[in-house]
Amino acid sequence: MDPKGKVALITGGARIGQVVAQALAARGCALALTWRESRAAAEASVAAAHAAGVAAIALQADGLDEAQIRAAVSATAQTLGRLDILINLASTYIRTPAAGAHEWSAALDANARSAFLYAICAAPIMQAAGGGRIVNISDWLVASGRPRYTGYTPYYASKAAVAALTESLALEFAPAILVNAIAPGPIMAPPGLPDDELAEVMRATPLKRWGGAAEIARTVLFLIETEFVTGESIRVDGGRHLR
């Protein structure tokens, strides 16, 4: 699928979302960006898209609220005229060393249930137009079958659910909609990560650096443009899984 002239809905408008939005706008793709707390980032991406000559809107939507998700999908199609691409970037990454039922539910809802709801709301619109693309975000650990770090059980399980969801929806929506996931490794350091931990990640990564958000944007473009890849979780981790 050529993104030019298409419409993409991106959940999670900050950090990586801004770079993905910029890459799509440069290809002539109109944008809808949802935000819950990152309004300024979403609106900055809208302004940049307008400067690039494409239509764009920012929509407030809580990914935990089904009614707001349905409203955001509907507003995208109504305002921009169509919906061809869904990129489920919104995610949480929280260490929960004493995880209980609340932490479990919170992680599954934020990372897996939200992606599921956006997908099933967007799919009928894409199918009616003849096809589409859905891109989810899993994790390199899940794609590698390695729950490497302690204290992240709800997070890991939620990202494993995203990988399973991707495979299942790829089968459900074929052949009209291709559904894939990106499984990032060391892309952008969490805010406040100590210098020694930053250095340790680089030492443990064969390519010896953090990847940067542009690597995710490149992979998103590949998964939009491909015509024969579906149900995959593609690691973008600088070879981190090899160690």
Structure in words:
The protein is an alpha/beta fold and 243 residues long. The chain has one domain: 3-Layer(aba) Sandwich (Rossmann fold), CATH 3.40.50.720. Helices cover 48% and strands 16% of the residues. Helix 1 links the parallel strand 1 and strand 2. Helix 3 runs parallel beside helix 4.
Jot down its keywords.
243 residues, alpha/beta, Rossmann fold, 7-stranded parallel sheet
Per DSSP E runs of 2 or more residues, the count of β-strands stands at 7
Overall spatial form = globular
Under the CATH scheme, the architecture is 3-Layer(aba) Sandwich
User: What fold name stands as the CATH topology?
Assistant: Rossmann fold
CATH level 1 name: Alpha Beta
| Order of helical and strand elements | EHEHEHEHEHHEHHE
Say which CATH homologous superfamily is assigned. Answer: NAD(P)-binding Rossmann-like Domain
Work out the radius of gyration: 17 Å
Q: Largest beta sheet, briefly?
A: 7 strands, parallel
Helicity, in percent?
Answer: 40-55%
Strand content: 15-25%
By secondary-structure content and strand pairing, the structural class works out as: alpha/beta
In the residues, how many domains can be counted?
A: 1
Order of strands, main sheet, comes to 3-2-1-4-5-6-7
Count of runs of 4 or more consecutive helical residues: 8
Cα distance spanning the termini: 35 Å
> How much is the average pLDDT?
94
Quaternary structure classification: single chain
State the low-pLDDT regions, or none.
Answer: none
